[in-house]
Design brief:
2 domains
């Protein structure tokens, strides 16, 4: 009876602590979520999502991402509208759920207490927070990767048709989330086929689930070829250095203010992950069935991590395209292996039986303390105040031209400026990409006595340099990160 009460109290304390961690994750992701204007890619998200179900499937062909996230935002917009807070809310929720999934994944290998550490590290991870606060698919990616991994690991508990279908469906959704999910999917496939990962029955079930996931993705393959044909430059602008950035400039501790402490935190974290990988490969003959199962799961996670890094390395040799934010897909596995490494270090042994537990506890406490310090110094990312600038321009006379550089700014105008498309068709809004286009459009521009040169970033462009030399500046307005200048022609100065 006493043992049952003690177990119940332990479980309750774990549940309470997990609840507090999820509340902390929610605060860090929802606090001021709608304060900033949407930035360019977020406006694209809204533009695609507003197109309707069929519009998303056809319109995304000009993008470089699969459609799942856009479809989710489409449903949210239909139900709640398209304010900044609403369109970012799905990402924030996905970020919170990823912390819970990370806890479940770590609990399978490290027990409840160390799983809390894994969930906390992800809850306060600056990279995870940043991408949970923007209307893009990068917070959905680690969530689907973690859920898919959990679904396939359930096959270790026994094979049923339902579990095969769930694993296959989760794998299919992962493939429709982000193309880095395909790298994770391939790494998971290699891990499941690796020796010691699964027994014969479970491996056969995993193959069926993997085949189902691939079958679900087959209808999208023609669109994949279209996307990568149109956006080939996306495959060439990234480098393998981004993989390093997962642990340094974009890692879990990069906001710790002191460089020495930041290096210490990163080193302890990588040491714990390395111990988890090593511990999963080290054999043990006198272990209980429960511990052997944990070791098998940890072994599978270690192979997933190693295979993911190896695939990224091989792809970077042929065609670099790895992104730090896409590397979030592996973060639940990283946190779980970190927790497993510390639990592996804390096990009693004939070598330093008490010292090992003391070392593991010290590392865990240090990681928690440094992670909390980093979270305290982490500030939400700020974007240009396109909302304020566009609301100002909306009030200006229609006889004044709006001149912008680069066509991709049309997504921002379409979101914040009512009737922007009609004004573009009518000739009041003009986009200039280069000098040749300026010469072509000059007659239309000259037909307006005055025009606003609009800059939705902080960086000067060739038009502003040109205008400052040959035009009369009438007025300038500045908003956070963006501005507009009203010019007139020299002959109309009076």
């Amino acid at each position: 009876m006493r043992l049952s009460i003690a177990n119940l109290m332990t479980k309750n304390s774990v549940h309470i602590t997990l609840g507090l961690i999820l509340i902390l994750a929610a605060y860090l992701r929802f606090n001021g979520l709608g304060d900033n204007s949407l930035w360019l890619d977020e406006c694209y998200t809204v533009q695609f999502a507003r197109a309707g179900f069929e519009g998303v499937l056809t319109g995304v062909a000009s993008d470089i991402h699969p459609p799942l996230y856009y479809l989710i935002v489409h449903v949210v917009i239909l139900a709640l509208g398209a304010s900044e807070l609403v369109v970012r809310t799905p990402s924030a929720i996905f970020g919170i759920l990823t912390c819970f999934v990370t806890f479940l994944l770590a609990r399978m290998v490290a027990g409840r207490r160390f799983a809390l550490l894994a969930a906390l590290l992800l809850a306060v991870c600056p990279l995870a927070i940043d991408h949970s606060r923007e209307a893009r698919m990068y917070s959905l990616l680690p969530l689907m990767a973690g859920i898919t991994t959990l679904a396939f690991l359930k096959l270790l508990d026994g094979v049923t048709r339902r579990r095969i279908l769930i694993a296959g469906a989760c794998g299919g959704l992962l493939l429709y989330t982000h193309y880095t999910g395909h790298i994770y999917f391939a790494a998971l496939l290699l891990a499941l086929m690796a020796p010691l990962s699964l027994n014969k029955e479970a491996r056969a079930a995993a193959i069926k689930a993997l085949a189902l996931a691939l079958a679900l993705f087959i209808p999208w393959i023609p669109t994949v070829f279209t996307q990568f044909g149109l956006r080939r430059e996306h495959l060439l602008r990234f480098s393998l250095e981004s993989l390093r950035d997962m642990f340094t400039s974009n890692g879990p501790f990069w906001t710790v203010p002191d460089q020495s402490l930041r290096l210490l935190a990163g080193g302890l974290f990588l040491l714990s992950v390395a111990l988890g990988v090593i511990g999963s490969f080290v054999g043990g003959h006198a272990e209980s069935p429960a511990r052997r199962k944990k070791k098998r799961v940890a072994y599978l996670l270690a192979v997933v991590l190693l295979a993911f890094v190896a695939i990224c390395f091989l792809l970077s040799i042929a065609r670099p395209f790895f992104l730090p934010k896409s590397g979030l897909s592996i973060y639940p596995v990283l946190m779980a292996l970190c927790a497993y490494g510390l639990s592996y270090l804390s096990r009693p042994s004939w070598v330093w039986p008490c010292a090992r537990a003391l070392v593991a506890g010290s590392i865990a406490i240090s990681l928690v303390a440094l992670a909390i310090v980093g979270a305290a110094y982490n500030s939400p990312r700020e974007y240009p105040d396109a909302r304020g600038l566009c609301h100002f321009l909306e009030k200006q006379p229609s006889s004044e031209l709006l001149l912008l550089v680069h066509n991709y700014n049309s997504a921002i105008l379409r979101y914040y400026l009512p009737g922007a498309y009609q004004q573009y068709v009518a000739g009041r809004i003009v986009f200039i990409n280069n000098m040749e286009e300026l010469v072509t459009r000059l007659p239309n521009i000259r037909s307006f006595r005055r025009f606003w040169l609009v800059n939705l970033t902080n960086e000067p462009n060739f038009l502003q340099l040109l205008a400052s030399d040959s035009l009369i500046e009438q007025r300038a307005v500045c908003f956070k990160g963006c501005y507009a200048t009203l010019y007139s022609w020299p002959e109309d100065a009076n």
